[in-house]
Amino acid sequence: MVKRMTAQLEPQTILQAEQPSIPTLSVVVPVYNEEENIPLLYERLVAALDAQDLPYEIIAVDDGSKDRSFAMLRERALDDPRLRVVRFRRNFGQTAAFSAGFHYARGSTVVTIDADLQNDPDDIPLLLAKMAEGYDVVSGWRKQRQDPWFSRRLPSFIANRVISLVTGVHLHDYGCSLKAYRAEVVKNINLYGELHRFIPAIASWQGVAVTELPVRHYPRRAGRSKYGIGRTIRVILDLMTVRFLLSYSTRPMQIFGLIGILLTTLGGAISLYLGAIKLLFGAAIADRPLLLLGILLIVVGIQLLMMGLLGEIIVRAYYEGQRKPIYVVREEINGGPPFAS
Ligand code: UDP
Ligand code: MG
């Protein structure tokens, strides 16, 4: 039963045009209901990338679009093997789309860009030049951001400050989709929720060199933004997760255990002292608040140790739980297995 179900969820059609040489650059584009933008997007991307003398691929991830986006991508992909299309069964969100793109990417450098042309494909060479200086992650900074002030720019300003403070990775614009990564960086990160924007922070923990570069930004030319102010809340909640991932997540025992040992030791010392004066000098200790404190410290200390242990077990289960995929692919064009992983 289970077997049959997984078999049904395999991509339906895998069309395969002849593959060009292995690309060094993979450009990942999440696409959700962007039919008006696809013709120009494709044209602009190809123009910008052709001008660079390096083999590339464009991986368009259709995140369950309900309009003609997929048909339009498909049409182009059948003529151009450098355009690879991954189609989701339903809308799984931008993070899942990036995650799929990273999985399929074969290049040693991966660039992400939005499909709505709010980012400028001509900025990609600038990102690549910055990467060539030796960075592992180059994050775009929409210095002159063309979005509404109150619903988008203000919350984003605050969020960027908070994220920088909490993660210790100082970027002006975490939310910018135009970013370049060395492939190893994105292939080693598990994404879910709204986590794609935190990749620079999560990656910093692998010890990579992160920098930012001002990029151009334009108002959306067609179609509607898929987000409103509600996203800010989800971003803040994800920030807590990231903080957790960046700090003691892997070793709860180290923090709970340490406090537990300190308290137990202190409680033990107090109890020993009281025991000694009782036994050696026959002092009355039953009415001393210190006795209560000593016993309390021992009990709380042991409980903290147990909590550390439980935390350790939960974290383990949590990491193992993450193996489940966050998206399901319906079909692939020019797909094929990713080479590096
Ligand atoms: N997107 C997606 N899945 C979603 C929402 C958005 O793949 O569920 C894509 C969308 O097509 C676009 C990019 O993510 O290419 C950014 O979306 P949008 O322009 O709506 O966000 P904004 O620029 O307003 O922050
Ligand atoms: Mg946009």
Write structural notes for this entry.
The protein has 341 residues and is an alpha/beta fold. It has 2 domains: 25-248, Spore Coat Polysaccharide Biosynthesis Protein SpsA, Chain A, CATH 3.90.550; 253-321. The protein contains 11 helices and 9 strands. Strands 1-9-4-3-2-5-7-6-8 form a 9-stranded mixed β-sheet, with helices on both faces. The longest helix is centred in the last third of the chain and has 33 residues, at 289-321. The radius of gyration is 26 Å and the shape is elongated. It starts with a helix and ends in an 8-residue tail after the last strand. The relative contact order is 0.15. The structure holds uridine-5'-diphosphate and magnesium ion (MG). Magnesium ion is lined by residues 114, 116, 118, 220, 225. Uridine-5'-diphosphate is lined by residues 30-32, 34, 63, 91, 93-94, 97, 114-116, 118, 225-227.
Brief account:
The protein is an alpha/beta fold and 341 residues long.
Main attributes of the structure:
341 residues; Spore Coat Polysaccharide Biosynthesis Protein SpsA, Chain A; binds uridine-5'-diphosphate; 11 helices; single chain; alpha/beta; binds magnesium ion; elongated
Note the topology.
Layout: H1 2-8, E1 14-15, E2 25-31, H2 38-50, E3 56-62, H3 69-79, E4 83-88, H4 94-104, E5 109-112, H5 124-132, E6 137-142, H6 149-167, E7 179-182, H7 183-187, H8 199-204, E8 210-215, H9 230-246, H10 252-281, H11 289-321, E9 329-333
Parallel strand pairs: 1-9, 2-3, 2-5, 3-4, 6-8
Antiparallel strand pairs: 4-9, 5-7, 6-7
Helix pairs in contact: 6-9, 10-11
The structure holds uridine-5'-diphosphate and magnesium ion.
Uridine-5'-diphosphate (UDP) binds at residues 30-32, 34, 63, 91, 93-94, 97, 114-116, 118, 225-227.
